[in-house]
Amino acid sequence: MKYLDRLEELIITFLMGAATLIIFVAVIHRYAAGMSIPGLQDWLLALDLGWAQELTIIMFVWMAKFGAAYGVRTGIHVGVDVLINRLDERMRKKFIIFGLLAGATFTGIVGTLGAYFVWENGAHYAFLTLTGMPVGDIPQGPTTPDLEWPTWMVYSAIPLGTSLMCFRFLQVLVGFLKTGELPHHDHGHVDGLEEETVPVDVDFYGLDDNLHMRDLKHSMVGDDRRKVAAPVDPDRRKIDLGGEPK
Amino acid sequence: MNATIIFLLLLALMLTGMPISISLGLTVLSFLFLFTHVPLESVALKLFTGIEKFEIMAIPFFILAGNFLTHGGVAKRMIRFASSMVGHWYGGLGLSGVVACALFAAISGSSPATVVAIGSILLPAMVKAGFPNKFGAGVITTSGALGILIPPSIVMVMYSVATNTSVGALFMAGVVPGLGLALTLGAVTYYRARKYDYPRLPKASFAERFKTFRESAWGLLLIVIVMGGIYSGMFTPTEAAAMSAVYAFFVAVFVYKDLGIKDVPRVLLNSANMSAMLLYIITNAVLFSFIMTNENIPQALADWMLGHGLGMITFLLACNVILLLAGNFMEPSSIVLIFAPILFPVAVKLGIDPVHFGIMMVVNMEVGMCHPPVGLNLYVASGITKMGITELTVAVWPWLLAMLGYLVVVTYWPGLSLWFPRYLGMM
Question: Is the ipTM of this complex over 0.95?
């Protein structure tokens, strides 16, 4: 499990960095090839980077699918949680479980659809050729325009990434049933304010902002609206913000 | 009839608190299964092609660029520069806060990030200098929202994705209204500071101004690269975003040295996490707008409006009310992705300029970020100032009111947003 987590993080970190570098190199190449430096120019002109754009798109599609799964684990997906955050704990628990199950259902359906699509568009053919079985009239499937990769390989991001996401939803659900906690109450964003610096990895979409479901173990930053105008208990603040209140 | 079913379904699913992307997707799937005979293959195809556009890839790049420069060190430089320029006027540090927020917001592209970075440095300083806590919180919370109006802005890229409007034209159109809003917020700050006689800073010498400018110039050059690159036609918007990400990396690691090489994977992972979440909403919003078009809903809405003799003025008013209401429940990107495909065709039919409509939506989103129950900026500010949300809402009120007034101006004066891109010949 730990290896899967690590692999997921490695994949999306790599894809993000590599895609940026590819576009950067492609742009530099375009302008450098226009300069008349003898020798260098011929070499640059011989390089064809027309595939850069397509590769970046493919990389980002993969990053988006696996990143969405990672996002379930980090609890970054935003929702409309104004109403359910005001319900009492018993009701809120039911809604949270429903939400997580709905997520698992949707990603499950999409993952299955995706697997079917990929299978019909070339994976079946590739499988048969690989194992040396007769192909019959099963289509070979299209290829991408610039790189001429089989599209089924590119699109397998959808069954793979979405199934992982489905798995993550179920994982979060199990964790929630066991402990009553959801994976976003790491108040890391207010750490280090005393030093007057902002931590490097502030996560602006991961705040308690009625955009995320409030779990059963933590209270929200801000005030408790069920008792309007009641002052916030300083002890609760201390726990929430991980430091002494000013 | 179908429209009612779709919207009720979406509303019901959203209110249960599941992620917006999931509720959009589930709405589409269940609607297709239950009420239509659209072949599922076309849905599958949409799922794959939803984000396969090079234009959309600007979003992860801009997020990455912003995250590299979202750092306390950059914020400090912007604050020093701003206070050396305007600190000696009435409102001193408060006015500097507005300017610093505008500069930092343009670079980081994220409103809550701006509030955290500028606020956590400037607010303690303001309290120390004798400003009431409320004043500082009000200035920073509202000025932080400038981030989505002053380009480069991710919300604008979202709008252009949803409506096929030119990103370049939108960016240029954001400049004048952005400066205008900064001026408005500055004016409110100035007026209130003068009324209550808040402290001012000593006037900075020219040498000091130049020094602080030179320090902050590296960060500000990012805006020049993006805007200049797009305007001169050197880069497409996506390429400009990628260039700005590489530039931001260079500045953060080698010039400012706020980040070490070892921090880079963390920034990459964090940016990937945010962008994947936004891209996932886009994928599902594309599906959603596909069934909207399939059911002819925008068309029907436009016909209904025209049939009842409702003109541009009523429509814009209705749009603002709907969007402000939506701002109570959702964050900007989701609002733009859900509402733009519905409202945009109607706007075009009524003869409203696509770019102007986009700017209006973005200003609207800004207002939404500063008021409860969902207002990212408010919650961030609450974390910093340790003030409750109710207390903060009262503190923000004068600036929020000015912003609402400004929204009316932007809505009914297209020239304000359209003049600059037209002058540059971009539209």
Answer: no
